[in-house]
Amino acid sequence: MNEIILNFFNLEILREVAPLLVQGFWMTLKLSVVSIPLAAALGLALAITQGASGRIGRTLVIAYVDVFRSIPPLVLLIFIFYALPFLGLRLTEFPAAILALVLNGASYFAEIFRAGLESVPKGQHEAARSTGLGWRQSMQYVIIPQGTRNVMPDLVSNTLELAKQTSIASAVALQELLRSAQLAQGMTYNATPLIAAAVVYFLLFWPFVRLVSRLHQTSGSGAG
């Protein structure tokens, strides 16, 4: 038991590497705060485009969704960071990670928003137009709020998944929480920093997991 505590729950080592872990924690939050709104906004724009444009627009949106849902975000990040410089586009670690997260996350948000917009009865469109609202105003004040409410559990769940995917940034040596824990583990030859990082991830994301469960239960009971 003593050996386990020394190697996995060593408070002395934890105090030593705490500043490094805190630095990584803030970078993880920064990645989440920047990438999630951008991915959601792009996803909503794609969903609206798919529903409102002609055949070419719908085809392009479907192609985007299929491509970026098929490519693992880690592979996408490695391509952006290491391959794009050969095409003359060089991004530093943070913008590269944000771009990969946004491109991938938007493809999932687009499908969720599309389902939400399509769930709004056609009568709502007609009722909004009959009150004198234009197409843009109808979407902004009537259709999008209702559609978003209809798929709220899926939106929160996808937000949680995107936040967890910020750990891929460690692949390009961006010092988010996982990368910080790996560096600390290498400095101390002890697994305590990795255990600490796992605990931080749990404390950070567990409330959202409970929220998703609650939303699904509410949605299920409401449908019943």
Automatic annotation (TrEMBL):
Residues 25-212 form the ABC transmembrane type-1 domain. Coiled coil: none annotated. It is a multi-pass membrane protein. The keyword Transcription regulation does not apply. One of its GO terms (molecular function) is transmembrane transporter activity. The keyword Transit peptide does not apply. GO terms for biological process: amino acid transport. Keywords: Amino-acid transport, Cell membrane, Membrane, Transmembrane, Transmembrane helix, Transport. The chain crosses the membrane at residues 25-48, 60-82, 189-209. It holds the Pfam family BPD_transp_1. It is found in: Cell inner membrane; Cell membrane. Its main location: membrane. Belongs to the binding-protein-dependent transport system permease family. HisMQ subfamily. Part of the binding-protein-dependent transport system for glutamine; probably responsible for the translocation of the substrate across the membrane. This is Amino acid ABC transporter permease.
